[in-house]
């Protein structure tokens, strides 16, 4: 039997695709029919669904035990996308992510409240006031602390601006202060204890003098190092045995700590002297040290430490002034002002911060449990995720901050207790302020990480994932670029340090040279300094660096980022969003509007029923008329009975004029309230009704182009998220598609009929040729003329049967064939 599909494989593939299209179309038609049926029965089944849902919940509560319910409730507190199976359940994925995001936003808000409660702009102004007093106040020689360049300048500052700043004993009108007003700086800042002055020295002959100069230079003092510290008593230590200024004390004895200066890192040990509470006695101490040459050639650093407290703003300012005396001679000043809030809980606002800190601790415990559960489930695979590692870092930093907060509170209380016992001793807040600053830095990092972590919860669509995808995809290229950049950059850093390090401050050290080149990239440079340092190599160095680094490497970096971003953007243009939370909120918003529309449409239907149900126009609306009208509008008997009974006060199954007016008034009030609520949600008051009769579907325009579809998508929607207009357009398109497919199928049938006719003709020709050959073989005894006549007769008969007309070749083929025989 002839099979056209087997004979024509291209046609077979075409028909297969067409059959798949027809099946898909059939599914769409069935979906539309089901959708129509659901819309028609939505109202009648709503009450039944509510009752069945209630029964289901009731049976679930009765079937489940109290203990299992508690376990599920507790476990749901730590339900995350990594602890729950959310890959196959889109709705669970959405809800879990939203729950995580909401909880994390609350955590972030609490953390921000705590951090903003730790600092304020007042801290800056407090620091500025103190620094201006001690750094910018000039002595009689018009030398400030910042201008100190020699030992003489140091002593001039210590005997002048330092004493004047620490001890203010008169008002601005030169009237002496009362004893209660003494000990304050600027009348507001209480000097805690007494200031301390301390120095570090190196041993004599701690460096080696070249033999050529050994006869001329007999003493040598190396740069500072802790291994060559001078620990021997010096000066008049025998006469002033109890004077600590001439004796060395270890770091543990002083309770000090190391300090990173401009030239070296200095230990907390040394020779120290505590000043007094009054200016007279403190000045006498400074004068005595000056006269006895307390600072000599071996001195490498002098520290001046003191602390002040302002009760008005509850802030401490811990001040350290450092003068370094390098082996080159001269003096280099530096300073540290740490304004910290060591006493945390004084005002009502402070106690509110305390409450937030307690909530923060609870959040940390919550996230610790969450991390443990996730690690328990995923094992080592958990640490391969970037966000997971960030979560662990966040928890660790937070735990450290909480621990230090507790330590700081206890330590400050001990310090203040010791200070109040004896206000004439030095109160060392240096270590505490140092760790308070480190604590503030840790909190700042925690807040930064916390804000960055928001991308974990909102990187769910194309827009949010473009940045992360771009960085992730170009990571290997950037790693290779970074290696090349560092090699070239370090080469230029070393070159600049060696060429200009002795003359240009910006290249005076390898570190300074490194950051100076970064400043050149950003456009912050001084070309004239390079040119003055070396008129030939300076410009060459500058031009080579700008060419290779700025024009080549930086543009290569930008090209990598731009190309990768273009690829990511192109790939994501056709990709489906991983998590469309915006659409999720939009659907919820639209469902809320649809519920309001449904209620409003119900009111409109009842209002219309009041106007049209009274068929006999007797101004008396009986139940049968009421039921018949609302039944035609698709309402169930239960709803019809409930509304009628509500206003049928006398129970006579008839609504009188007063009862109808009361119903109309109530309906008008309800409709006004719904319209107001609808407008508050951002809807349009003139939005078309979602309850449209399906019998009117063909009354409109038959246009179903994109514009009509787009326009209809913005009109009323049903509770399932599809508007009647969209349904109408879709059904029209289905009808058109069915009509088009019908014409295509008819054409295919015609083609198949023609193919079958051609195949039959082909078979007929084969049979004819067979008869001709048989006739030739069977007529061996006849003459050639007789054979020719028989063949011509047979060919004419068969040709007439096939309908091909005369064949001129029939007179030649038998002859040639006979000749071949």
Automatic annotation (TrEMBL):
Segments passing through the bilayer: 101-126, 343-368, 389-407, 439-458, 478-500, 536-561
Topology class, membrane: Multi-pass membrane protein
Localization terms from the record: Cell membrane; Cell projection, Cilium; Cytoplasmic vesicle
Any one GO CC term of the record: cilium
Binding site for Ca(2+): 648, 650, 652, 659
Keyword Cytoplasm: no
Skewed-composition ranges (Basic and acidic residues): 678-689
Compositional bias per record (Acidic residues), positions renumbered to this chain: 698-707
Keywords noted in UniProt: Calcium, Calcium channel, Calcium transport, Cell membrane, Cell projection, Coiled coil, Cytoplasmic vesicle, Disulfide bond, Glycoprotein, Ion channel, Ion transport, Membrane, Metal-binding, Transmembrane, Transmembrane helix, Transport
Cysteine pairs bridged by disulfides in the record: 207-220
EF-hand domain location: 601-636
GO molecular function: calcium channel activity; calcium ion binding
Entry keyword annotation includes Transmembrane: yes
Ranges of compositional bias, category Low complexity: 710-719
Swiss-Prot/TrEMBL GO biological process terms: detection of mechanical stimulus
Domain of life from the UniProt record: Eukaryota
One Pfam family here: Polycystin_dom
Region (Disordered): 45-65, 678-720
Family listed: Belongs to the polycystin family.
Protein name (Swiss-Prot/TrEMBL): EF-hand domain-containing protein
């Amino acid at each position: 039997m002839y099979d056209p599909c087997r004979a024509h494989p291209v046609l077979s593939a075409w028909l297969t695709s067409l059959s798949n299209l027809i099946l898909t179309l059939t599914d769409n038609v069935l979906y539309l029919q089901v959708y129509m049926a659901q819309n028609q029965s939505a109202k009648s089944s709503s009450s039944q669904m509510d009752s069945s849902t209630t029964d289901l919940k009731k049976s679930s509560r009765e079937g489940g035990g109290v203990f299992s319910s508690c376990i599920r409730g507790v476990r749901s507190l730590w339900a995350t996308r990594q602890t729950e199976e959310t890959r196959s359940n889109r709705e669970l994925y959405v809800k879990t992510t939203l729950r995580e995001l909401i909880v994390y936003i609350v955590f972030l808000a609490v953390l921000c409240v705590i951090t903003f409660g730790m600092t304020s702009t007042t801290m800056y102004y407090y620091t500025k006031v103190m620094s201006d007093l001690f750094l910018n106040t000039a002595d009689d020689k018009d030398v400030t602390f910042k201008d100190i360049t020699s030992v003489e300048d140091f002593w001039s500052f210590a005997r002048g601006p330092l004493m004047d700043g620490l001890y203010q004993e008169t008002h601005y009108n030169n009237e002496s202060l009362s004893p209660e007003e003494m000990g304050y700086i600027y009348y507001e800042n209480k000097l805690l204890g007494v200031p301390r002055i301390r120095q570090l020295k190196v041993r004599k002959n701690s460096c080696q003098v070249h033999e050529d100069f050994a006869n001329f230079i007999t003493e040598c003092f190396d740069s500072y190092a802790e291994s060559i510290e001078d620990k021997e008593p010096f000066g008049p230590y025998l006469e002033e045995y109890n004077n600590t200024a001439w004796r060395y004390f270890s770091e543990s004895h002083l309770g000090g700590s190391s300090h990173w200066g401009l030239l070296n890192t200095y230990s907390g040990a040394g020779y120290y002297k505590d000043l007094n509470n009054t200016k007279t006695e403190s000045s006498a101490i400074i004068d005595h040290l000056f006269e006895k040459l307390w600072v000599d050639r071996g001195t490498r650093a002098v520290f001046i430490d003191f602390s002040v407290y302002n009760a008005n703003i509850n802030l401490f300012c811990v001040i350290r002034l450092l003068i370094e005396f390098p082996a080159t001679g001269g003096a280099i000043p530096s300073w540290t002002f740490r304004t910290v809030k060591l006493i945390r809980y004084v005002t009502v606002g402070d106690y509110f911060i305390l409450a937030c800190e307690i909530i923060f601790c609870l959040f940390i415990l919550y996230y610790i449990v969450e991390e443990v559960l996730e690690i328990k489930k995923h094992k080592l695979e958990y640490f391969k995720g970037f966000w997971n590692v960030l979560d662990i870092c966040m928890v660790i930093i937070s735990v450290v901050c909480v621990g230090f907060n507790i330590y700081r509170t206890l330590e400050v209380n001990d310090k203040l207790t010791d200070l109040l016992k004896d206000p004439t001793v030095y109160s060392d807040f240096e270590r505490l302020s140092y760790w308070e600053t480190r604590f503030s830095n840790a909190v700042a990092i925690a807040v930064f990480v916390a804000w960055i972590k928001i991308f974990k919860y909102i990187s769910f669509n194309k827009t949010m994932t473009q940045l992360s995808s771009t960085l992730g995809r170009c990571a290997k290229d950037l790693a290779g670029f970074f290696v090349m950049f560092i090699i070239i950059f370090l080469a230029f850093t070393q070159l600049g340090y060696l060429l200009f390090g002795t003359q240009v401050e910006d290249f005076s050290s390898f570190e300074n040279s490194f950051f100076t080149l970064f400043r050149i990239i950003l456009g912050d440079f001084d070309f004239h300094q390079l040119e003055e340092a070396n008129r030939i190599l300076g410009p060459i160095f500058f031009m080579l660096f700008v060419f290779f680094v700025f024009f080549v490497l930086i543009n290569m970096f930008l090209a990598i980022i731009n190309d990768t971003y273009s690829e990511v953007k192109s790939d994501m243009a056709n990709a489906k969003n991983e998590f469309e939370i915006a659409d999720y909120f939009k659907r919820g918003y639209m469902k809320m509007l649809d519920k309001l529309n449904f209620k409003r449409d119900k009111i409109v239907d009842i209002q219309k029923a009041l106007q049209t149900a009274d068929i006999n126009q007797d101004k008396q609306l009986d139940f049968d008329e009421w039921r018949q009208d609302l039944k035609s509008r698709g309402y169930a008997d239960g709803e019809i009975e409930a509304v009628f009974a509500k206003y049928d006060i006398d129970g006579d199954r008839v609504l009188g004029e007063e009862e109808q007016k009361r119903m109309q008034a109530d309906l008008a009030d309800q409709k006004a309230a719904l319209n107001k609520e609808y407008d508050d949600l951002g809807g349009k008051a003139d939005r078309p009704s979602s309850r449209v009769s399906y019998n009117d579907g063909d009354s409109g325009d038959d246009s179903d182009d994109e514009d009509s579809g787009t326009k209809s998508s913005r009109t009323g929607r049903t509770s399932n998220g599809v508007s009647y207009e969209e349904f109408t357009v879709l059904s029209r398109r289905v009808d058109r598609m069915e009509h088009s497919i019908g014409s295509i199928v008819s054409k295919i049938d015609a083609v198949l009929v023609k193919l079958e006719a051609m195949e039959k003709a082909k078979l007929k020709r084969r049979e004819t040729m067979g008869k001709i050959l048989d006739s030739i073989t069977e007529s061996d005894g006849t003459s050639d003329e007789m054979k020719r006549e028989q063949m011509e007769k047979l060919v004419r008969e068969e040709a007439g049967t096939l309908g091909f007309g005369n064949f001129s070749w029939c007179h030649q083929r038998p002859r040639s064939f006979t000749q071949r025989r």
